[in-house]
């Protein structure tokens, strides 16, 4: 009788331990799946932002080496997504094709320019993150960051210049002149070397002078009293 009770107790303990082990395993799997879903969501968001940034940089005429670094980063994000969820492999996008598939927006409207600024700023931060992750040197990241900052400035200035051209073509000289002056102010305020600004400022000043002569012709002199 004593032996039977002992066996029942041992079996009961074994069942309880198995149940606890199974619950612990299920909890571990659930926690792992939760972290995996969160990581996939983050990777999806980051890859989407990176592909949009790639499309903007290409449209804005960014340096090829910066575009290449961003392209490599996008590919690493996509590869990690595939590793976490192999089913994605069938529809995994190529960064170049995906960036080309992003519908381009003419960088002339205020909305398109603002969007471009946001994604160029994203690319700036990304370069620093890549340096911290050891993928590029911090010195190179800072150089790229400065290059992207100037690209953002030129995108805004060019947006004003393009709007000025459209307005001038429609005969609205004064609004066109206002856009040119805004473009000049953007370049003047840019925190880059004077040499980098010089060519743009000279071209802008020439256009401003030309439009001022058209929009604000000199007043005729009053006839002399006899």
Descriptive notes:
The chain has 226 residues and is an all-alpha fold. Helix content is 80%, strand content 0%. It is built from seven helices and no strands. The chain has helices at residues 2-59, 64-84, 95-101, 110-132, 138-169, 173-189, 194-215. The longest helix is centred in the first third of the chain and has 58 residues, at 2-59. It is elongated and about 125 Å long.
Largest beta-sheet characterization: none
Distance between the termini: 143 Å
As a whole number of angstroms, the C-alpha radius of gyration is 30 Å
- Structural category: mainly alpha
Q: Averaged pLDDT, please?
A: 82
Enumerate how many helices there are, as a single number: 7
Apparent shape: elongated
Helix amount, in percent?
over 70%
Instruction: Flag low-confidence runs.
Output: 99-104
Strand element count: 0
The gist of it:
This protein is an all-alpha fold and 226 residues long.
List keywords for this structure.
mainly alpha
Please describe the topology of this protein.
Blueprint (H helix, E strand, L loop, with lengths): L1 H58 L4 H21 L10 H7 L8 H23 L5 H32 L3 H17 L4 H22 L11
């Amino acid at each position: 009788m004593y032996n039977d009770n002992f066996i029942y107790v041992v079996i009961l303990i074994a069942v309880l331990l198995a149940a606890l082990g199974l619950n612990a395993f299920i909890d571990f799997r659930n926690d792992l799946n939760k972290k995996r879903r969160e990581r996939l969501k983050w990777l999806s968001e980051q890859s989407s932002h990176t592909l949009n940034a790639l499309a903007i940089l290409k449209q804005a005429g960014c340096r090829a080496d910066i575009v290449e670094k961003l392209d490599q980063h996008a590919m690493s994000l996509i590869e990690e997504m595939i590793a976490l969820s192999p089913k994605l492999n069938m529809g995994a996008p190529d960064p170049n094709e995906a960036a080309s598939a992003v519908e381009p927006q003419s960088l002339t409207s205020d909305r398109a320019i603002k969007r471009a600024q946001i994604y160029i700023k994203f690319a700036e931060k990304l370069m620093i993150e890549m340096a911290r992750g050891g993928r590029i040197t911090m010195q190179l990241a800072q150089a790229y960051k400065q290059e992207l900052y100037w690209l953002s400035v030129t995108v805004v200035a060019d947006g004003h210049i393009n709007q000025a051209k459209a307005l001038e073509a429609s005969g609205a000289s004064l609004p066109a002149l206002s856009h040119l002056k805004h473009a000049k102010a953007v370049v003047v305020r840019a925190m880059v070397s004077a040499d980098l600004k010089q060519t743009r400022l000279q071209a802008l000043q020439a256009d401003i002078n030309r439009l001022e002569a058209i929009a604000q012709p000199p007043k005729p002199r009053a006839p002399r009293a006899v």
